[in-house]
Amino acid sequence: xxxxxxxxxxxxxxxxxxxNSKYNDEIAQETLEWIQKITGSPxxxxxxxxxxxxxxKDGTLxxxxxxxxxxxxxxxxxxxxxxxxxxENINAFLEAVKKLGVPSQETFQTIDLWEKQNLYSVVVCxxxxxxxxxNFGLPSxxxxxxxxxxxxxxxxxxxxxxxxxxxQYGSNKGQQSGISFGNRxxx
Length: 187
Fold this sequence. Notes:
Layout: H1 11-21, H2 25-39, H3 49-56, H4 60-69, H5 83-99, H6 110-114, H7 119-132, H8 155-162
Protein name: Jg3809 protein
Domain Calponin-homology (CH): 25-134
GO biological process, one term: actin filament organization
C-alpha cells in the first residue's frame, strides 16, 4: 500500500482484516517455490505476505512466468520501477493468464497486488495458473484439473424425466387445514 495513503478505518478496516485473514503462508510459499522451479527466481521463497509482495509487486517475474508457458505472451516487460510501468506489467500478466485458460473469477485486479489490497487473490490466480501448467509441459501445482464428464441421454430417458413431479412443486401432505391469510390460529 502506498505510504502516503491513510489507513482504513471502521467497516473498511474490518473488511480488509477479513480479506487478509484468508491469506495462507504455506500456500504462498508453495506458490513461490513453484515459480522458482519454472523461472529460476526468486531467491527468497518465504511465504509471508511481505515477501510475496516484494517479489511480485513490479510484475516482471509474473511476466517472465507466463512467457515460460507460451513464448511472447507478454511482448514488452517494463524494467522501470515507475508505478504505471509496474502496473502495466501486472495487467499484461493478467491478460496473458486469461488467454492461457485461467478463469476470470480466479484472477485479481492490478490494484490487489500493487497496493497489497488482496494478496490472497494473487495466490489464487497463481494456483489456478499452476493447475494449467501441465497442459504446457511445465511442472504443475495444486490439485489436478478436473476433466469434462459429458452425459448423453436417450430420447426415452428425457421423456421419462418429464413425468416426474419435482418436490419443488410441493404437495398437499402435512399442511395445516383451516389456516389462511387473515385468520388466526385457534389454540
